[in-house]
Every structure is written in C-alpha cells, then in structure tokens.
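quick one, 239 residues, struct below
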Amino acid sequence: MREVLAEAAFQLFLERGFEQTTVDDIVARAGVGRRSFFRYFPSKEDAVFPDHERCLAEMTAFLEMRGSDASLDPVNTVCDAARLVTRMYAANPEFSVQRYRLTREVPGLRTYELSVVRRYERTLAGFLRRRYADAQGGDAPEGALRAEVIAAGVVAAHNNGLRSWLRSGGHGDADASVDHALALVRTVWGRGGESERAVTTVDGAEGSSADEVIVMVAPRGAPLWKVVQQIESALGEEA
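---
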C-alpha cells in the first residue's frame, strides 16, 4: 500500500504539479481512504521520498555492525555507508531523475530534502563521534569536531557525485560517480591519507636529477594545503 500511494502521488505531482495536488487527489487515484494515506505518510512531502526512512534504518544497522570492529578505518566505513544511498537511487533511475527534477522546481521539496540529508549527516557523525571517543578514552571536543567535519564532507562529496549522475539523466554508473567524489574524503581524512601527509616524498622533480629524492616531514594531521606549500617551497629551493 505504501508503494501504491507513493506511485499515485508522484504521478499526480508530475501531471498536475506538486502544489496543485491534494491528499484527496492522491487517495482517489490510489483507491483508498485518507486514513490509509496518513498511516504511511505524515505529509505530501513524505510521499515524494518514500524510501529514505528504510535507507536510514539500513545505514544505522550497517554502522552498528561495523562499529564493533576497531580495525576498520572509520572514514572508509562512513563512505561505504553513504553508498547505500547511491544504491537506493540507482535501483530506479527513471524515478530518481524525475524526483530530482521535481525537487529542483518546488522550493518546499528542496527544503524537505535538505532536512533528510541532515539526518544522514547526523547518523554518520554520531558513528564517528563514538569511534573517536572510544579511541581517545572519552568524548574529547576535538574528536567531536572531527566527526562533524568528516560527516559533512562525506555528505557533500556523495551528493556532488550523485547529483552529477542525476543531471546526466541517470546514464552511466552512479557508483563510479559517487566513488570518484568520495575518494577525496578518503584521501584527506582516511588512515592512508593521514600517513601520506606524515611523510611526503617527491621523486624525479623537474630541475633535479632522476635519482634525486626530496623528503619532507610534516606533523600528522597537518592541513593538506600547508603540506603542498612546503613541498613547493622545497622544490623551489632545489631548483
């Protein structure tokens, strides 16, 4: 019944427009009463995004399952969790593209969508806070800040890749588009990225001999821009 109502609602939104469609119109198209609609959806906006509650539940379960394994990189884990949203969209490309276009046209739907995105972000940040608190022996403010920043980065990168795929009309590989964007988060914040920033080696730089190696050491966790600046400075001095 939930799917029947969602399909009826969405078709009416496309035919008549979101603002012009009422709940009475939706239940008439679905052949049910108003009570049935509100049993599944608190509002018309919820009927546009019928699958997010399930996806949020799946993400929460995924993170709970991974949370007990301290050997897993928490940044990789939240990136993998974000890909659950990608799969949800990719499961029905035509519907996802139509919804994306409808959301761009209706400010109220855009606001609703942002509230849903924020719920995903809070879920990811909560997982990261717990992991960093366990690692540091308490809920240190720095760990909480790190969790919020990384979660926001994961959501921003994921949405960038997903919207690129949606703007293409749902053509191509949605996972590849999202993975390309998430790679930046993994590089900057993941364990591999941190270790790479700790010691950086530049081999075969322009203006140096082929076997010349420049080694630059930076504090773990130093901003990436500062590391690059130091590398460029070292190369300039060598030249």
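DSSP finds twelve helices and two strands in the chain.
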